[in-house]
Amino acid sequence: QVQLVESGGGLVQAGGSLRLSCTCSARLCSSYAMAWFRQALGKEREFVASINSRGTSTYYADSVNGRFTISRDNAKNMVYLQMTSLEPEDTAVYYCAAGFRGLGITTTVYDYWGQGTQVTVSS
To answer: Where does 1-123 show beta strands of DSSP type E?
Structure first.
């Protein structure tokens, strides 16, 4: 069973930065592609960023490209999302996801999900 736990969310002013962390508790965490999604109030869950199992390939949504960076530390079973130049439009619950099927941008590609961490960006 794979358990994902996000942390690092909070309230930040526009232009600020936050780093989200995702702890993966499973024997095969380093074999999974990992991703971050987000869901704003009243909206559908949307793709933010993904990273392959070795950390050698990443993909970003256009809305965050150049501002957010996804990374992983397989020795620690951790995945990170460094967020800079935050905007009020980035306000959402951020979810960590894991799956075997590559760097997909849709929720159906990922098999395991965390409970989410709230990020609120004030203007």
So the answer is: 3-7, 10-13, 18-25, 33-39, 46-51, 58-60, 68-73, 78-83, 92-99, 112-113, 117-122
